[in-house]
Design the sequence.
């Protein structure tokens, strides 16, 4: 994920006007600022642009904001050049034009403006408004990172880790992650947790990993909340504590983190860290299942089949088994074969049962069931079942490919 640097709002000129006219109304202070801007003061022009952009002491007006940013930018004021780049990037107060955004970011970046250097690095990394060039991306990230820009430090760490525009160097990656993490940048704190978990660029240290996950988790980072929960569940880097594990699973689950929802369902199903509650287990399984979590879909199907935490409903069971089967879950493909053979929750159909059993045979050992059914099918039915199995496999592969493409 790339983060965009945002606008700096307050210049020394605006601060001076505010202090000098502390007894004046906001409207009067704005008039004073506007007078300086009309006299050609670039800092005042910049701050008038900010006032219009934010709607401070004047009605919000992005067109006016952009006009004043341009006046200051054309006089060489780097923050105004950066803001004008943002205006073009987002189409705020002017037409959206990524090439012009890059041009203005470059002007500010070449003056050493760290936010602009970072954004220019992003543009080179993804090829937006400029030809994609990972080496240039690294160069601009480094310039901003060396000025202490946390997002640039984080992205530079990613470049070293993934060998994008620079030779892979896990030690350098961890070094830059740490610089960003020490500034409280959450994704970098999470990555430092991962570095210590797996010994990437640093000596493996589960206590350090848990410490960094906690820093990010306490700032609301769902991945880190999940990782911290796993630490408490397994006792890696912290004392084993199932209540704490369930607490952190819930925090991540409440943010929609599917694996945490699935694990929290397991806590409720088994009474681990929480009171046993089958209805809560089924509810959390559903939240994860609706996001496409295969194991959650499979287990929700089982809940409906057995009536655990929900009213028994074989049609619903078959529906959720099918969703998991469509993602390549062999056990659910096998279950669907069973259901079709017996006509439970689905149409009774021996050919369909045979097709699902054949399909499942690619991942689980059910050869005896397939052979047994073959003894009771005609040659035509076996041929139809084999054809159907191939069709199902093609459908599954297409769905999996589409899902990967979407990610």
Sequence:
């Amino acid at each position: 994920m790339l983060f965009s640097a945002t606008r700096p709002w307050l210049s020394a000129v605006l601060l001076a006007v505010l202090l000098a006219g502390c007894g004046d109304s906001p409207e009067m202070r704005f008039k004073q600022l506007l007078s300086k801007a009309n006299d050609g003061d670039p800092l005042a022009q910049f701050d008038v642009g900010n006032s219009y952009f934010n709607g401070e002491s004047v009605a919000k007006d992005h067109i006016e904001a952009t006009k004043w940013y341009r006046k200051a930018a054309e006089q060489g004021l780097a923050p105004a050049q950066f803001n004008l780049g943002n205006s073009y990037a987002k189409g705020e107060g002017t037409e959206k034009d990524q090439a012009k955004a890059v041009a203005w970011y470059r002007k500010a970046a070449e003056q050493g403006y760290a936010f602009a250097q970072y954004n220019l690095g992003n543009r080179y990394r993804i090829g937006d408004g400029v030809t994609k060039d990972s080496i240039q991306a690294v160069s601009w990230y480094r310039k901003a990172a060396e000025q202490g820009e946390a997002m640039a430090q984080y992205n530079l760490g990613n470049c070293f880790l993934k060998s994008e525009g620079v030779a892979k160097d896990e030690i350098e990656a961890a070094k830059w992650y740490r610089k960003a993490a020490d500034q409280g940048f959450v994704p970098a704190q999470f990555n430092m947790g991962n570095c210590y978990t797996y010994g990437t660029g640093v000596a493996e240290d589960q206590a350090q990993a848990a410490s960094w996950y906690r820093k990010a988790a306490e700032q609301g980072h769902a991945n880190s909340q999940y990782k911290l929960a796993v630490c408490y569940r397994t006792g890696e880097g912290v004392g084993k504590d199932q209540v704490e594990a369930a607490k952190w699973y819930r925090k991540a689950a409440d943010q929609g983190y599917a694996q945490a929802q699935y694990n929290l369902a397991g806590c409720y199903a088994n009474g681990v860290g929480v009171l046993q509650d089958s209805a809560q287990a089924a509810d959390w399984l559903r939240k994860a299942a609706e996001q496409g979590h295969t194991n959650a879909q499979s287990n929700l199907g089982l809940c409906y089949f057995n009536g655990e935490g929900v009213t028994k409903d074989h049609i619903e069971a078959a529906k959720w088994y099918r969703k998991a089967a469509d993602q390549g879950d062999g056990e659910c493909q096998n279950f669907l074969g069973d259901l079709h053979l017996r006509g439970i929750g689905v149409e009774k159909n021996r050919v369909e049962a045979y097709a699902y059993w054949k399909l499942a045979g690619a991942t689980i050992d059910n050869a005896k069931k397939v052979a047994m059914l073959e003894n009771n099918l005609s040659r035509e039915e076996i041929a139809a079942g084999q054809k159907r199995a191939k069709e199902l496999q093609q459908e599954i592969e297409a769905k999996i490919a589409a899902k990967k493409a979407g990610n």
